[in-house]
């Protein structure tokens, strides 16, 4: 054969060596991003999907016969599995014609587990599992064959999934210009909202009752989440078989996460990230660093220490309404989300002690309420949504989108979660959050070293490390502090006062550097006693807001001056918590 | 002396006929391979076993006549009889290879096609290496043939020929997707084509690898859409291995059946009924 010019450039990414310049899949190259060149993993995916096929329609339908049945289920967000065939990247098994495949071995494992559990609970007769899946002691085969699942919708969109761990950066590290080790974004391949068609066949004909039972068991199996990262919101079907700890309906708007190709995506794992971060802040204010980190790892999972831990908490977010749009123009254009839905936190495995479960329930509820009162979720969660509270800011459209705004959605959610309607209640609430966390630490038999709290962390929640200031804003146009982020808070008056400003300082942060301040406009909702039905308090929305500033002083000159300014009680701002 | 027939197997799911224990390498569960081409085969004994078990479950007793009587204790010579139907191993005719950036192609080589030609009684000459039909989609190089990429590098299609004669009956392969490569290439391409996945046992109560009990191991299998051929010799006609008058049937071959491996469509042709 004659020579092919530049043959090495034509080799598909899948067959290149995992070194710089060839095919470094999990690595995202900043220079390439600047030069608007495709990342290696983007090329890898586009080559994979270039001539790829979809499952033909005749194999995409549900089937019901005596010996073969197939059923389809849709995953509510992303679905990730690791076929284990690439060192560089997490990606699914590739089945016929290059189509991603959920193997029958995974399916059988999930089915067997659900089947054994149902047997133990007495929901199905003993021995059912042996009939279906085989007897492990006798080594006899079961009658079912688990044939796995193919996605039957168009699986080629949105395969690239960016994961960005940032707990250390968000909570711990004082110098946020430098990202902690191991916290850079990496890429993985996951399927975006796939419809999976699972097939099961039987060596001998089964009755329709038996098939019904089989699918019931399977639905139990998938209700505990399919594939990997289920506690991070992946692989969830619209139901859960886990014990629910907390449930709330929320609505929110803000800046959507950007995929590598710059399209927007609402990623429900922002809830998990927020709670994980807040848990670390609060534990960090109550006990020593390593205990705090262990506690968080126990709750949310992680890979620190000798062995990876599966966390106790999993969650599911079912959007009832979701719009992804764009805001701003030119290089300021950003994808946005506008979402309503139900958030569920569940136990990934049973806890033996009912007392502990009760404490965990309290803890999750407190953390959710804490997250809602003091900030938001996802990108720019430390700021109020400027589209609502500082409309004039966007008179010039060449401005970046700032902030997000989250609210409790329905009455029963509000009844259970609105703990603060007046600024005076803030301190009481924070103390209660810390008490709940203390109780959890104690029931975990962990040391409560309040004197050794994590004072090195930037955002440890300790009265000596954080101050919460607040006032009541009459309506959405009455946010005072939002202006301080964009111009001076105190005008210079010759001979009397110098200009005071936190604008563009370390206090307010900038791109790549985290601000010391959280700013929140928390809607005031009144929950009043109902004389007619004490169990159903009256919920009344108002147009007022609690304008809250949470600040983690860093002893810088700007920060000290700003605190001095706050002590003059501008626009009635009061110190609500902290020393 | 014998009536000649043959069977075509199309895999409808990955097919895993395991290698013997000595051939395992580390934690990779290999499939059984032909020693010359290093491509997957199904031994004649596996095929016979499957046919036999199937007939036994449908017409108990019949299987003793067609596939030989099993040994009975106490009888002279063990009471065994000669089978009326004899099987040989099944070898690949075509197997699909997926490579990013190009459509799936079905690959074969002269050695494999030669066996198919003999069994199916094809008159055409076996195509030369690097032959495809005009309609094959590949990267068109300037002033030369089409190029395909495989794990062994770039392959240029040197000859154009009509390959429709080489599509086994009972299958619906597209002749424009067939590629004949050199005998020396086939083992590597076969390696690239295999279905592969890792398997691991998880803890019963947690989604975490069971490092105590669960070894981590890889499984390989012939991919979905592979076509194999096997010869059948019959001492007597009138063999009805499937339901009445059918000449094709879904059968399971190989191992790992309970996790979805081994579903195949078998079609028979030749002198057997």
Automatic annotation (TrEMBL), chain A:
Highest taxon in the source lineage: Bacteria
- Which InterPro entries does the record cross-reference, listed alphabetically? RAMP_III_fam
Pfam families this protein is in?
RAMPs
Which Gene Ontology BP terms does the record give?
A: defense response to virus
Chain ranges of the CRISPR type III-associated protein domain: 96-237
- Which keywords accompany this UniProt record? Antiviral defense
Protein name, per record: RAMP superfamily protein
Q: Species name for this entry?
A: Oxynema aestuarii AP17
From TrEMBL, chain B:
The record's listing under InterPro entries reads: CRISPR-assoc_RAMP_Cmr4, RAMP_III_fam
Q: What residues does the CRISPR type III-associated protein domain cover?
A: 9-264
Keywords tagged on the record = Antiviral defense
Q: Which domain of life is it from?
A: Bacteria
- Gene Ontology biological process terms, A to Z: defense response to virus
Keyword Lyase among UniProt keywords = no
Could you identify this protein by its name?
A: Type III-B CRISPR module RAMP protein Cmr4
The species this protein belongs to is Oxynema aestuarii AP17
The beginning of the lineage is: Bacteria, Bacillati, Cyanobacteriota, Cyanophyceae, Oscillatoriophycideae
């Amino acid at each position: 054969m004659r020579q092919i010019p530049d043959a090495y450039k034509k080799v598909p990414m899948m067959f290149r060596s995992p070194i710089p310049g060839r095919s470094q899949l999990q690595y995202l190259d900043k220079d390439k991003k600047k030069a608007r060149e495709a990342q290696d993993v983007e090329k890898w995916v586009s080559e994979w999907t270039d001539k790829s096929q979809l499952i033909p329609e005749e194999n995409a339908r549900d089937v019901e016969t005596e010996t073969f049945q197939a059923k389809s289920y849709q995953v509510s967000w992303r679905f990730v599995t690791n076929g284990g065939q690439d060192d560089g990247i997490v990606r699914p098994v590739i089945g016929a014609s290059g189509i991603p495949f959920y193997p029958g071995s995974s399916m059988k494992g999930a089915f067997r587990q659900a089947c054994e559990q149902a047997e133990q609970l007495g929901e199905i007769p003993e021995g059912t599992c042996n009939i279906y899946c085989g007897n492990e002691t006798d080594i006899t085969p079961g009658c079912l064959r688990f044939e796995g699942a193919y996605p039957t919708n168009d699986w080629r969109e949105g395969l690239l999934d960016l994961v960005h761990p940032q707990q250390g950066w968000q909570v711990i590290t004082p110098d946020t210009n430098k990202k902690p080790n191991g916290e850079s974004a990496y890429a993985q391949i996951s399927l975006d909202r796939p419809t999976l068609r699972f097939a099961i066949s039987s060596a001998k004909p089964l009755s329709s009752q038996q098939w019904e039972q089989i699918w019931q068991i399977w639905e139990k199996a998938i209700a505990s989440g399919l594939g990997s990262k289920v506690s991070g919101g992946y692989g969830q079907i619209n139901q859960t078989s886990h014990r629910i700890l907390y449930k709330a309906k929320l609505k929110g708007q803000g800046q959507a996460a950007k995929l590598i190709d710059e399209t927007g995506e609402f990623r429900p794992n922002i809830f998990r990230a927020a709670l994980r971060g807040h848990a670390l802040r609060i534990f960090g204010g109550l006990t020593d660093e390593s205990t705090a980190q262990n506690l968080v790892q126990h709750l949310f999972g992680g890979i620190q220490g000798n062995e990876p831990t599966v966390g106790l908490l999993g969650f599911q977010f079912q959007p009832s309404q979701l719009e992804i749009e764009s805001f701003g123009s030119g290089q300021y254009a950003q994808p946005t989300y506008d979402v309503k839905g139900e958030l569920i936190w569940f136990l990934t495995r049973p806890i033996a002690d009912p007392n502990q479960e009760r404490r965990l329930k309290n803890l999750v509820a407190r953390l959710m309420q804490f997250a809602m009162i003091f900030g938001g979720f996802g990108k720019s969660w430390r700021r109020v949504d400027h589209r609502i509270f500082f409309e004039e800011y966007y008179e010039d459209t060449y401005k970046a989108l700032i902030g997000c705004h989250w609210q409790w959605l329905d009455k029963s959610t509000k009844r259970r979660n609105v703990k603060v309607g007046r600024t005076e209640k803030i301190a009481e609430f924070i103390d209660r959050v810390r008490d709940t966390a203390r109780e959890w630490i104690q029931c975990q038999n962990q040391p409560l070293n309040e004197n050794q709290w994590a004072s090195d962390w930037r955002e440890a929640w300790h009265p000596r490390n954080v101050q919460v200031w607040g006032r009541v804003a009459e309506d959405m146009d009455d946010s005072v502090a939002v202006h301080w982020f964009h111009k001076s808070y105190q005008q210079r008056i010759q001979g009397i006062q110098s200009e005071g400003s936190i604008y563009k300082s370390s206090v307010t942060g900038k791109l790549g550097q985290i601000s010391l301040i959280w700013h929140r406009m928390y809607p005031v909702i009144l929950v009043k006693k109902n004389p007619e039905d004490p169990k159903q308090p009256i919920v009344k929305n108002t147009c007022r807001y609690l304008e809250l500033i949470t600040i983690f002083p860093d002893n810088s000159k700007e920060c000290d001056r700003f605190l001095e300014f706050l002590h003059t009680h501008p626009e009635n701002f009061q110190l609500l918590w902290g020393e | 002396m014998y009536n000649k027939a043959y069977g075509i197997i199309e895999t409808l799911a990955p097919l895993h006929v395991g290698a013997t224990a000595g051939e395992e390498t580390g934690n990779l569960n290999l499939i059984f391979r032909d020693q010359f081409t290093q491509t997957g085969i199904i031994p004649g004994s596996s095929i016979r076993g499957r046919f036999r078990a199937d007939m036994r479950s449908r017409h108990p007793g019949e299987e003793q006549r067609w596939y030989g009587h099993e040994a009975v204790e106490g009888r002279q010579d063990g009471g065994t009889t000669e089978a009326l139907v004899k099987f040989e191993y099944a070898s690949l005719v075509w197997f699909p290879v997926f490579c990013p950036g190009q459509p799936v192609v079905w690959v074969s080589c002269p050695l494999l096609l030669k066996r198919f030609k003999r069994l199916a009684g094809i008159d055409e000459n076996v195509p030369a290496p690097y032959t495809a039909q005009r309609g094959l989609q590949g990267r068109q190089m300037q002033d030369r043939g089409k190029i395909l990429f495989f794990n062994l590098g770039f392959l240029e299609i040197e000859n154009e020929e009509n390959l429709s004669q080489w599509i086994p009956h009972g299958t619906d392969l597209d002749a424009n997707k067939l590629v004949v490569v050199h005998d020396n290439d086939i083992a590597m391409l076969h390696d690239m084509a295999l279905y592969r996945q890792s398997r691991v046992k998880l803890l019963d109560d947690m989604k975490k690898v069971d490092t105590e009990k669960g070894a981590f191991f890889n499984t390989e299998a012939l991919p979905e859409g592979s076509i194999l051929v096997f010869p059948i010799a019959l001492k007597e006609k009138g063999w009805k291995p499937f339901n009445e008058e059918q000449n094709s049937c879904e059968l399971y071959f190989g191992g790992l059946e309970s996790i979805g491996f081994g579903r195949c469509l078998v079609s028979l042709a030749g002198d057997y009924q």
